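pasting for the record
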Amino acid sequence: MTGDDELERLKRQRLAEMQKALAAREKAPENAATLDEKKILAKVFVGRAWEVYYAALRQYPGIADSIFRELAQLVHNGRVRGQITGEQLFGLLRQIGLDIRLETKIQVLEHGELKSIADKFRTD
C-alpha cells in the first residue's frame, strides 16, 4: 500500500468510529429521559398505579408513552400535586379514551387460606 492509500483507510476508519459514537450519544438521551420520567412519577404513584402504568404501556405503547411523559412534566412543574393512585390513573386514562384492561382475581379467605373463586365453587 502506498502512503495515500493508508491515510485514506485511516480516515475511513476514524469516520466510522465517530459515527458509532454519535449514534450512541443520540440514543442515550432517550433512555435518560425515560429514567427521569420514572423517577418523577415514582414520587407521586402509590398503590396500583404502576400496574396501570405498565398495562397502559403494553396495550397502547405510543399514546401511553406521550401521556406519561406529559404527566411527568406536569408533576415536575408542580401543576400536579399529591399522590396518584391506581384508581385515579385508571380513571384518567378512561376519560382520555384508553380502555385499559387489567387482570382481575377474586379470592376468598377460608380457614386462613386464600382460594380463588373458582376453587371455592368447585369445593362447594
